């Protein structure tokens, strides 16, 4: 028996069938494959931050020198004047401007209204009131730095 004959035998009208279809009671017989994901995760599984920076790449060479910094998505990664890698949210908690690392003062600065943060993200000069989110860093090898949530 064809589907149309079966439905007709049930005594359902065209309008009833469409209502059932729209409500999801009936489903199409097509077998579509879900679209493959085109997103390449750069921050590990789930929404947790977890990525590794390859310092051998020319794009990352700023981090080979004390005082250098780079942005990775919404994170600023800097190599402090003492050679320690730090990773913080790059979004100023005052009004969202991108912050930068200042080698001269060894801190994080927002050029919009002058807020400053220490290397842990704590506010050391307002108008910002809330700290920057801090991420952990570790040297995986001499040329690889891992940035992750603890
Ligand atoms: S947006 Fe950064 S201090 Fe105002």
Report the oligomer.
single chain
Radius of gyration: 27 Å
Number of strands: 10
What is the CATH topology assignment of the largest domain? Rieske Iron-sulfur Protein
> In percent, how helical is the residue content?
10-25%
Structural class: mainly beta
Mean pLDDT: 79
Envelope shape: globular
Q: What is the domain tally?
A: 2
Strand content: 25-35%
The residue ranges in which pLDDT falls below 50 over 5 or more consecutive positions are: 3-45
How many helix segments? 2
CATH homologous superfamily of the largest domain - what is it?
A: Rieske [2Fe-2S] iron-sulphur domain
Q: What's the CATH architecture of the largest domain?
A: 3-layer Sandwich
Strand count, sense and barrel status of the largest sheet are: 6 strands, antiparallel
Strand order of the largest sheet: 1-10-9-4-3-2
Hetero groups in this structure are: FE2/S2 (inorganic) cluster
| CATH class (first level) name of the largest domain | Mainly Beta
Order of helices and strands: HHEEEEEEEEEE
Q: N-to-C terminal Cα separation, in Å?
A: 61 Å
